[in-house]
């Protein structure tokens, strides 16, 4: 058959050929709205391609982008890739030393930077070893006062270049981009992606048994475009020619809710905290209607079942859970309901929707026990989650040690997540192996405890971490943010948890705080919490756990 | 990223891993029903794999299958392919000399033959140059009296072999199968398929903007499994773990209607004549309910718009038109309605649904005029349809001459179909270039005329072919099968056509016959009709055309 390479120019060419008039909408930082079409975007991407040539970037050179989600970032999703270069999607929310590490690790030769991040970049520029030039993502007037140099602005860079470009023939196994992991458990790790992987990931995003993103959808990626390729949404949506909406800095609940309402968004995606916060906003502003939504994808960490119910019952906006990793492009499993599940009573269906989900087509998944065999599919036996797919990485960039341990001999990635599996093949992620609480030789899942805490009506957010214990090794500490409406005591929470969990799972201590610190990608920052609550519990302090 | 090869064992492994209990149902020739599951099928496919090894078939050897659609044929869809051999799906409805040509052309080393076709195969066995053994697709008791040798039966061949098999690593560019074209325009041409092509085709079959075959579907391929991979349905359905229903010999309208009703079929596919005939049956048997159907795919030739309306209005079973070729695996375009079309009035939507359709994701399509440029997308200007995709062939087997002409320099296949394209990117196939009628230097589409004839309520079937004309070169001859209810005259037809077409398009002559001869894949056999009505029209016989 024809050796048509699975490269990203194909996605773009399809959109501009068949859907030239479909819109790409950006809510700009100043609150105004920028609208243009795939045809417009295409011309500018061609100009960008010429500009990259003029900058003297070689094949394979990495182009760093430090930007929120907006149309210029979208252009950068294609310009470098379609010319044989690589986009490095930088996570500027990382702490400085991690941020610098990622830029150096990727050896970015140029950085495209939002005006708002110029200061942060400039403050670290001394430490960049490879960066030779800077481009500010705006017009000349938008370049802030800065020491960075050489610096130019994006609009001047593009202007004057031809609006057509002959894409080179690129082998599908060429790197098109790189992301770093979120740094939740340590130094972020670089994952280089190939054209083939993202092409296949984009196709699968449109599969009816996966995200089913089609041309009739309007997508709104709230998830940052630096977080695992914006979960592949900008590429998948381009492939089908769907309308796209970018929020730039406006990722607060109010702005997102209004964008969904006004732009008739049918598909959006973010980490759970975003949807948790938006629920508060929607309750206070019942005139805002988000019921256009068909799928509100949530991933990055597990959403509580209570959140899924709330979005169904109160806002008519179904939540769809996804599990994935930077290493998996990221689509791995989705809590779509297979036929057998749609025939179950509603309550049981919610149990399924609260799971990490079912492997999407093209993704091989297994849960391996200590004996090296697949664990029984009983929904109870825990094991290490391992995955294999054309869009899963086979190595980390510059990390020989991790590379030695992260892959099995038969080519699966060890995800570092602990999971169970049930008869119907659904995976539920119990916890990260690093976050599991080892109490007297038995494992307690921090995720299950925190999700049950968040189901309490007077809890806004909650997390659970291990603290040292002189007798049981580790015991759970619950850290809770009350909603503030009504009283909330340790006893309330303990009796609430006791309805679901055995005595020995119940936290030994509760801390009430105002806000749970989040990581750069909006996950609960357990590293920071463990440092902050670095206490040692003693046996006599315990209640039930000891008996 | 991981170099996971896109091979067909992945489809099978997914089905058996996640949907082991889903059913594969066959209505056997004797009228009884065979049911088993993917888990059962998998064990037998492993046994078949061992048996193929034992037969001494080398890597790359072609295994011919002469069979209707049933579970053993399904097993053969995987056994040879997953062990690095190739299944040659033989079209036994071809005239003998064509049938023999296809077997010799493919150099089949073994033929797996339905009991019902043993006689036909035996009658031609002398001419097979490569076939060394025969396997009858049944149990020992089902082998008919025959001279074929050596011959064994399928069940004995399988029995005793282990029910597990370690699939070899196969490069995705390896041939997994071969089909021959239908022979509508001449000697059938062999098309070799790779694993990669059919894997991608299967994925795309599940895309929400294509056939959207998902795990909740129950599929019934009426289209023979030798016709362009059964339009890829058995592979696509396996990938998602959908229930499959095979009719074997029972492809008459009554049987199909009952199977749809009883097995709750949601997706079926066939050439237009099947659905035309089934409509007659459904009208006479209103108690049969086929409204489970979500998509009744029709392809191979253009269905009349009147048929599409009838299925909506009377049976609540939406028809979806597809265009494709043996050369394209076959999925090319589908008359899915893009967002802009769903907003049009119903009548205009039907116009879209009567078109060949919109390019499925992954398929590049263009219509090229005489000047070598894309024709304007005005819905009127005709040109040659050209396509490019990872699942389009880049050569015919053993056909150097065709290979020289069928492909453009930049790697597109010249389909031989004449098409127009409209603003929204939809393709409508006007005719095959060989069937277009050239009247006085202007082109008349035989397909458009015949579809309008079939919209007449007293016409059961109709076709139009060119006949020689002493002044205008060629003129249309209409060949019509009346329904038999009420009178039908030439004048009725002429005035009916005159409502739609200009005078010079109207046929010069009408022939009324009892049945239109069909090709091996159920298309109108215009070659045969042209031979039968090999007449020369004279100028003085004409009416309006001359004035
Ligand atoms: N639906 C989900 N349920 C539970 N956990 C999830 C879910 N989706 C993602 N995760 C968690 O997120 C991880 C992947 O996140 P990401 O790639 O953003 O980096 P990280 O693992 O948070 O950071 P790092 O690898 O640098 O420590 C998964 O391994 C898993 O632990
Ligand atoms: N929806 C459709 N509308 C009109 N024509 C169609 C449609 N689908 C398929 N066809 C016709 O069928 C052809 C492909 O058919 P197939 O591969 O079965 O062999 P064939 O072209 O009939 O035979 P041969 O190539 O041997 O002459 C297309 O080229 C086109 O002419
Ligand atoms: Mg990680
Ligand atoms: Mg043909």
TrEMBL record, chains A, B:
<dbReference type="InterPro" id="IPR020845">
    <property type="entry name" value="AMP-binding_CS"/>
</dbReference>
<dbReference type="Pfam" id="PF00501">
    <property type="entry name" value="AMP-binding"/>
</dbReference>
<keyword id="KW-0443">Lipid metabolism</keyword>
<keyword id="KW-0436">Ligase</keyword>
<dbReference type="InterPro" id="IPR025110">
    <property type="entry name" value="AMP-bd_C"/>
</dbReference>
<protein>
    <submittedName>
        <fullName>Medium-chain-fatty-acid-CoA ligase</fullName>
    </submittedName>
</protein>
<dbReference type="InterPro" id="IPR042099">
    <property type="entry name" value="ANL_N_sf"/>
</dbReference>
<feature type="domain" description="AMP-dependent synthetase/ligase">
    <location>
        <begin position="12"/>
        <end position="396"/>
    </location>
</feature>
<dbReference type="Pfam" id="PF13193">
    <property type="entry name" value="AMP-binding_C"/>
</dbReference>
<dbReference type="GO" id="GO:0006631">
    <property type="term" value="P:fatty acid metabolic process"/>
</dbReference>
<feature type="domain" description="AMP-binding enzyme C-terminal">
    <location>
        <begin position="449"/>
        <end position="523"/>
    </location>
</feature>
<comment type="similarity">
    <text>Belongs to the ATP-dependent AMP-binding enzyme family.</text>
</comment>
<dbReference type="GO" id="GO:0016874">
    <property type="term" value="F:ligase activity"/>
</dbReference>
<keyword id="KW-0276">Fatty acid metabolism</keyword>
<dbReference type="InterPro" id="IPR045851">
    <property type="entry name" value="AMP-bd_C_sf"/>
</dbReference>
<dbReference type="InterPro" id="IPR000873">
    <property type="entry name" value="AMP-dep_synth/lig_dom"/>
</dbReference>
């Amino acid at each position: 058959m024809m050796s048509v390479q699975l490269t990203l120019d194909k996605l773009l060419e399809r959109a501009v050929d068949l859907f030239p008039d479909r819109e790409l909408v950006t809510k700009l930082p100043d609150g105004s709205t920028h609208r243009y079409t795939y045809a417009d975007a295409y011309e500018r991407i061609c100009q960008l391609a010429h500009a990259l040539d003029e900058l003297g970037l070689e094949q394979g050179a990495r182009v760093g982008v430090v930007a929120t989600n907006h149309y210029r970032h979208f252009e950068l999703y294609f310009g470098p890739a379609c010319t044989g270069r690589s986009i490095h999607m930088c996570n500027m929310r990382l702490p400085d030393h991690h941020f610098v590490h990622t830029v150096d690790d990727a050896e970015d030769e140029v950085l495209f930077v939002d005006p708002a991040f110029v200061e942060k970049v400039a403050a670290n520029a001394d430490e960049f070893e490879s960066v030779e030039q800077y481009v500010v993502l705006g017009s000349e007037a938008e370049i802030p006062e800065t020491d960075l140099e050489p610096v130019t602005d994006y609009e001047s860079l593009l202007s004057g270049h031809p609006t057509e470009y002959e894409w080179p023939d690129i082998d599908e196994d060429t790197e098109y981009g790189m992301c770093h992991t979120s740094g939740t458990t340590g130094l972020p790790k670089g994952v280089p992606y190939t054209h083939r992987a993202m092409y296949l990931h984009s196709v699968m995003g449109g599969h009816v048994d996966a995200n089913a993103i089609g041309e009739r959808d309007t997508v709104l990626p709230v998830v940052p475009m630096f977080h695992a390729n914006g979960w592949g949404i900008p590429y998948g949506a381009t492939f089908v020619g769907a309308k796209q909406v970018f929020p730039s800095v406006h990722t607060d609940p109010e702005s997102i809710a209004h964008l969904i309402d006004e732009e008739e968004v049918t598909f959006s995606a973010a980490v759970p905290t975003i949807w948790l916060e938006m629920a508060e906003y929607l309750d206070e502003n019942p005139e805002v209607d988000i019921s256009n939504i068909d799928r509100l994808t949530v991933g990055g960490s597990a959403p509580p079942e209570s959140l899924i119910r709330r979005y169904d019952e109160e806002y008519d906006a179904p939540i769809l859970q996804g599990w994935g990793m930077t290493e998996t492009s990221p689509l791995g499993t989705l809590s779509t309901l297979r036929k057998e599940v749609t025939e179950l009573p509603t309550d049981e269906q919610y149990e399924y929707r609260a799971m990490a989900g079912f492997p999407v087509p093209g993704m091989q998944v297994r849960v391996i026990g200590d004996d090296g065999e697949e664990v029984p599919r009983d929904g109870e036996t825990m094991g290490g989650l391992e995955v294999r797919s054309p869009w899963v990485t086979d190595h980390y960039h510059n990390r020989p040690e991790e590379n030695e341990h992260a892959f099995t001999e038969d080519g699966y990635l060890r995800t570092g997540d602990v999971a169970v599996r049930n008869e119907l093949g659904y995976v539920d992620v119990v916890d990260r192996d690093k976050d599991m609480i080892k109490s007297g030789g038995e494992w307690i899942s921090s995720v299950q405890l925190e999700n049950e805490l968040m189901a309490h009506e007077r809890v806004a957010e909650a997390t659970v971490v291990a603290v040292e214990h002189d007798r049981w090794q580790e015991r759970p500490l619950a850290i809770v943010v009350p909603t503030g409406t009504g009283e909330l005591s340790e006893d309330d929470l303990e009796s609430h948890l006791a309805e679901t969990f055995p005595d020995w799972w119940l936290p030994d201590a509760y801390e009430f705080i105002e806000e749970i610190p989040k990581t750069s990608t909006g996950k609960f920052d357990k590293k920071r919490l463990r440092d902050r609550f670095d206490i040692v519990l003693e046996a006599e302090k315990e209640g039930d756990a000891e008996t």
